[in-house]
Amino acid sequence: MSAPSEASPAASAPSPFERLGGAPVFEAIAARFYDLMDTDPAYARLRAMHAADLARVRASLPRFLAGWAGGPRDWFEENPGRCMMSLHSAMPIDAETAGQWAEAMERAIADVAPQPSLIAASMSDTLARLARGMAR
User: Fold this and answer.
1) Cα–Cα distance for residue pair 49/83, rounded to 1 Å
2) Please, how many CA atoms are within 13 Å of residue 88, restricted to the half-sphere of its CB?
3) DSSP H stretches of helix in the chain
4) Of 36, 42, 43, 61, which shows the fewest CB atoms inside 10 Å?
5) Are 30 and 58 in contact (CB under 8 A)?
6) Measured CA distances, 5 to 8, 61, 70, 134 (Å)
7) How far, rounded to the nearest angstrom, does the alpha carbon of residue 27 sit from its chain's CA centroid?
8) Averaged in consecutive runs of 10 residues, what is the pLDDT profile of the chain (136 residues)?
9) CA 32/CA 39 separation, integer angstroms
10) Running DSSP on this structure, what letter comes out for residue 69?
11) Quick one: which of 50, 33, 21 has its CA closest to 116?
């Protein structure tokens, strides 16, 4: 009889981060999201909630998403105890702005179209529910 493997099947399975294409895909999704938010009038209220210069959040979001999807955890290590809910707690998020965020993220993911599409769709759905859950 052979010795049991030290790595469980789940531990050796590629993460959603890896399966979707890694950092370049998450950077493309975040870039597309902020491009939409910055230029599409449908997201004007959402855009108004952010600083004039989006450089900081453009750099932060892909790192958060990467860690959230099983990739490098450096965003979480640099922001111990922080999450999307705590970071946005002071913002006046209502159903409209939460919906704008969710729609812009759904569009960004669809535009980048990472594969496998089932994982991308699941990520899109989960992030949309997270955003809508922040509405007060």
Assistant:
1) 18
2) 21
3) 9-12, 16-20, 23-39, 44-48, 55-68, 74-78, 84-87, 95-112, 117-133
4) 42
5) yes
6) 7, 36, 22, 42
7) 10
8) 54 91 98 98 96 95 96 95 82 94 97 97 96 91
9) 11
10) T
11) 21
- How far lies 61's CA from each of 8, 13, 48, 64, 72, in Å? 30, 25, 18, 5, 13
The single-letter DSSP state of residue 27 is H
Is the Cβ–Cβ distance between 46 and 132 less than 8 Å?
no
**Tokens 């913002």 belong to which residue?**
91
| 71: its two tokens | 């990739």
Per-residue confidence (pLDDT) for residue 85, from 0 to 100 = 79
